Amino acid sequence: MQVPGDEMVAAIRGIQLGGQLSVEHRRTGNADIYLLTGKRCRIEITIDATRWLGLSFALHDINGNAAIHHDIDTDLYNISQPKYREFAVDIESEIVQFLDSLVSGKIRVGEVSGALTMIFPCGDAYFRIKRGRIFASGRYFDDLSAAESTGRFERLCC
Based on the domain organization, do 31 and 72 belong to the same domain? Predict the structure, then answer.
């Protein structure tokens, strides 16, 4: 049986071997914490197979300030319980898809109405996050061309 977090560790190792991002690792209690950094992004990944899986992504603007945040995690569900195992697997798959999209150039950044915006694959759709004055807003689209239709976008080079 797969241990929660194994696929995430494999994805992180692939990123480390590819050299696209700097990867640091530390252990805190039962959790493995990975910090991935690049020119335009910072990602913190937490893997505690008995309690929690999570990814916290920050896209930096041209001045180096965190401008858009995106989190994927198992929330407060106790993933060590069998009834939450499938949920943990789904969240882990979503995290791995996000990491794979990042290194394969499928995450797009640009502007919509002058606001920094990021688009990435999420399952069979695309999710667009647009920075607001105080909060960001998110929306799903069926295809990439619809998500990009109101702005100018390019591949995110982290």
Answer: yes
